[in-house]
Amino acid sequence: MYNSTITQDLLGKLPQIQLSDKSWGIYFITIGISLILFKVIMNASQDLEWSFNQASGNAVFVENARGETSSETGHEQETDVVYAETDENSNANGYKEAPEEEADVVGDVASLKKNGAEKYEQGDYGGALADFNTAYTIEPQCATTLKYRAEIKRILGQYKEALEDLNLADKLQPNNVFTLSTRGAVYKELKDYENALEDLSKANLLDSKNSFIKTQLGVVRRSMRHFEEALKDLNEANALRPNQAFVLAQQGTVKREMGKFVDALRDFDAAHQLDSSDGFVYQQRGVVRRELGDLVGALQDFNQADKIIPKDSYTLRRRGVTRREVLDYQGSLEDLNLANTLEPYNDFTLSERGVTKKVLRDFQGALQDLTMANHIKPDQAFTLKHRGSAHRELGNIDEALQDLSYADTLEPDDFFTMLELGKTKTQSHDHEGALIHYNRVVEMEPTDPRILRQRGCLKRMLGDYSGALEDFKKVDEIQRPKSIHNNAVPIIMERCFTKYAMKDVAGALEDAMVVRNLWGVNGQSSVKGEKLKLATTQSAPGPSESASSMSQKLCDIEKSTSCHHILWIDHSKLLFSKSLGRGSFGYVHRCKWVDKNQDVAVKYISSHHKDAFEYEARMLANIRHPRVVRFIGCSYDEEEKQGLLVMELMHQNLRSLIDMKRRVENSPPFDLPVAVDIMDKIAEAMAYLHDQGVLHRDLKSSNILVNQSVDGKEDYVVKIADFGLAKLQGENNMPYFMTVDVGATLWRAPEVFRNDGCHKYSFPADVWSYGITCYEILTGEVPFEGITCAQVRQKILSGLRPELPASCPSILKSLVTKCWSLMPYDRPTFANIHKTLKLYLGRDSIDRKAGDVIGPHELRRLC
C-alpha cells in the first residue's frame, strides 16, 4: 500500500519534467532502486515486529515465589509498525522517506532490531539488550525500540530503567496496549500497585481478550487484597487460554488467602500436573497442606521447593513453622535462622523464630525476636500474644498483661490470647479476672479437660464450690470413656479438696480413698500423699479438730502399706516348664500356675532382703498400662533367699523377632508402617513410665516383648518388660540389687559413660536407649557390635552416631537423630516422640491446645 502511494506521487510529476533521453533513463533507474530499497526496509520492519511479538508476545509472564517474572508466549500481537513515528520529514501517510544517503543507516537499525528480537526469542537477553541499545543510539525517538528494550530490562529485573523507556515510549506513542501492559507489569514488580492497576486497566479496555493482561490484573488485585476481583480476572484469563500453570497457581493463591483451602489445593494440584518443576507451586501447595493439617505432605512440598529454589527465605520460614508443628524444634530453629540470614528483619521470620525459642524454653531469646518483630511491624496480634506469653514465663506480669490485652483488642476472642490472659491473671492473683477469660476459653473449647479443671480450681478459690464440682464432673465424664487413669487422679484430688472446703468431710474422705486406690495402681503414693495432706489442710481450714482429724485420716491412708494390693503366690504352686532366658539380675522361666491353670513368666531374683524385693514387687504392682507387661503377683522363698515375680507370658522378645524376619542380608526387618507402629507403641509405654516417675534404665529390643495380634496380619502387641534396673526418679534408698548397673553398653547414653555411675542417670538417658532401639527396628542391626566397651565409649563421646539408611524418611531420621543428642536436655521427651509418631501414622488427632506444645491452630496466620 505504501509503495503504490509513493509510485503514484512520483508518476504524477512526470509531465512537468523536461529531461533528455539519457536523463530519463537515469531518473527511472533511481526511482526503481529507491522503491526496491524502501520495500526491503518495510518488509524488514514488519518481520521484526512479527518476530518480537512471537518472542515476547501473546505472552503470560511466569511469576516465581517472590513475584519476579520471566516470560512465556502471551502478549497479543502488536499492530504498530517500526517507522510509524513522524517528524518534519514525514510524508502525508506519516512515514519517513529514507533519503538515499541514509539507506545504509536505516537498514542497519532494522537489522539490529530483528537480530535483537531473535536473540530475545532464544533467551539471550543480554545479547538482545545490546542490539536494542545500539539501535537506540542510532534512532533514540523510536517507540518500538524503547518498549521492546524495556521488556528485556523488565525480564532482567532492571525495573527502574525499564520504566524510563516505557514512559518515553508512551509519550511517543500513547495508548499502546503493549506499552501499557508492560508498564503495568513493571509497576507491579516495584509494588506500585495503584499505578499498575491504572495501566493494566487501560490496556484491558483497549484489548479485553488478552490473557496476559487479565492475569497481571489478577496478580495486582491479589496483592491489593481485592480477592473477589482478582479471582474474576484470573478466571477470565483461564477461559481465554486454558491450562496455564501460572494462572492456576495464582488462582490457588487467591483462594488460599480467602481461606478456601480445599479449592486452592485442587488448583495447585492441577498446576503441578502441568508443570512439576515450578517451585512456587510447591511452596503454595505446602502452605495449603499445612493449613489442612497434612504436615507430612507440607514438609514434602517445602523440601521439593527448597531443591528447586535453594536458600529461599519464604520456603525456609514456612518449612520452619511446619517443622515446629511436627515437634522438630531444632530443625525449625535452623530453617528460621537461615531465613533470617537471607532476609534480615522480616517480621514473620522473627515472630515465628520467637515462638520456636519459646517452645524450647529460651524465653529471653524469644522475647528479643518477638520485640524486634513488633518494631518492624507493630500492631500484629500474633506477635503480641506470644510476646505476652514469653513475658509471663519470665515473670514479667505487667508487661504480659499489656501485650495480651492489646492482642485481644486487635484479634478478639482468640483462643491462645484468652488462655494466656487467664494464666497471667491467675499468676497475679486476679482470680476474678482470670475466671472471666477462662469462661470465654471454655465457650470456644467446651471439652478440654485441662481448661475445665483450671476453671474449677478458680471457682473453688472464689467460693463457688458447686460450680467447681460441676466442672470437675465434666472432666470426669470426658476422661472416663478414654480410661485415662493417670489424669483421673488430679481431678479427684481437686474434687476432694472442694468437698472438704464445703465441709463435706465424708465425701472428701471417699474421694481420698479413691485417690489412694488409684495411686496404688499408678505408683505415686509416697510423693502424692504428703501433697494431698498439705493441700487439704491449706485449702479449707475449718475447725481445728475437724481439719486435724481429716488431715490425719488422709495421712493415715497415704502412709498405710500397699502390700495388700500385691498378690502373694505360694511358690510351690508354680511348676517349672522351661527356661526363657536371663533378664536384668534374674533368670526368667516359663511356669504353670497350678491354681489358675495358667502359663506365666516367672522372674527369679536373688535377694537376701525380703524388704528390698518387696520394693520392686510393689513398684511393678503400681504400674498398669496396656503397653507394659502385666504384673500378676509375687512369691518369696525364705530358704533360697530368692524372690519370684510372676508376670504375664508373651510369645517372644523384639530382638528375636527382628532376627527371625531378617531373612535377607542388609534388608530391614519390617515394612516402614509396621516399624513406625512398633516405635510408637514403645514411646507410648515409656511416656507413661516417665510420667509415673519411673526410669527404665535398660531399654533395648531384647527387653521389649511382642505378640502377633492378628493371624495373617503383621500387627504386633508390644509391651515393655524387665524392670530389674528400673527405679523411681529421686528415690535414694534403692535396694542394692537395682543399682549395680545402668544398662547394656551398646544402649548407654554419653552422660552415663562420662559419670560412670547410676546416680546421674535421668530420663533423657532412656530416650538415648530408645533411639538405639529404633535403629534396631529400622535396620535390623545392633550398632557398634564386635568392639569393646572402651571402644564404644570412645566412639559415643567423640560424637560418632549410627548411620540410618538413606531410605529412612527425613522426619524419622530427624527424630531418631535427636534422641542421640550429646546433651540430655536437647533430646525430645517420650510424650513428644509419641505425638510426632501419631501424626506420622495419621492416627487420632492429639489435643494441641493443652500444655506447652504449640499446635498449628494456635500459630496459624497469613503473611
From TrEMBL:
ATP binds at residue 603. TPR repeats lie at residues 143-176, 177-210, 211-244, 381-414, 415-448. Keywords: ATP-binding, Kinase, Membrane, Nucleotide-binding, Serine/threonine-protein kinase, TPR repeat, Transferase, Transmembrane, Transmembrane helix. Residues 574-837 form the Protein kinase domain. GO terms for molecular function: ATP binding; protein serine/threonine kinase activity. It comes from the Eukaryota. This is Protein kinase domain-containing protein. It comes from Ceratodon purpureus (Fire moss).
